[in-house]
Amino acid sequence: MRIVIAEDDPISRKALETTLRRWGYEVIVTRDGKEALQALSQPDAPRLAILDWMMPEMNGPDVCHELRNTEEGQYFYLILLTAKDSKEDTVSGLESGADDYVTKPFSMRELRVRVRCGERIVKLQSELLAAQKALQIQATHDALTGLLNRAAIYDALERERARLLREGGQLAVVMLDLDHFKNINDTHGHAAGDIVLKDISNRLAHASRSYDLVGRVGGEEFLLVMPTAGLDGAIEVAERVRRIIAETPVDIGEKALNVTASLGVASAQILEPGITMDELVQSADEALYRAKEGGRNRVESTRKSHSMC
Ligand SMILES: [Mg+2]
User: Residue 221 catalytic?
Assistant: First the structure.
């Protein structure tokens, strides 16, 4: 674990550094509050700091105060070192945002216990954040394919709508449905069906542009949200996706299956507020329906302009 120390007195600073290193910590040494704040503001900065109260440039409580105002997500555990020991001083130290304080002259044993306590909190905090992040991914992604799930891709679509209203421009969506997917499940089993879904998802993610958003919205139905794309650009991408799926059979182990997809494209230029993204998706759905009717393994688009959007 890494610790930032801030101490203006050279002898105390050296003693603190040596002791912490002996205890196995990696120590980042600073000589005043400003240096400490700088060290703690780096990306991937240590989350634990021991700050002397009285320092030139910026004192310990000011560093605490500043950090508490700027920390986002991650938590810093801050220990103040102080010669002050009146109740009032203690309160004002903690009010500045410090987690703990040690009164000088302190015993190294006491410091060790307090640093360990901080270390535990920092570790708990980062475990909590990691768990929260994992949950967030779980809540927004489809477990089988790793693509955005239905709720998340529709959220993304809403954000794009807001962006269009703010900045203007255009937006396209592509609805994709695998052809005769039920036959694959019925003939080769659901495990084979899952392999197909995963493989097609990968192809879809690769064939789209890096800033497009791809979601699985139903069993074998996918939605591609394409920020800034016009109808022609979106058709081009949809055609590429169709080809990449149709050209290479999906390897399901004992054999390879020919899979095709039908795609419907729709685009919008937002001219006034009030459009729902449902209308846009519905246009793509209608185009998809025509692609199915027209013989599958093809791309259809909705040319009609979305004057309401
Ligand atoms: Mg000092």
Answer: no
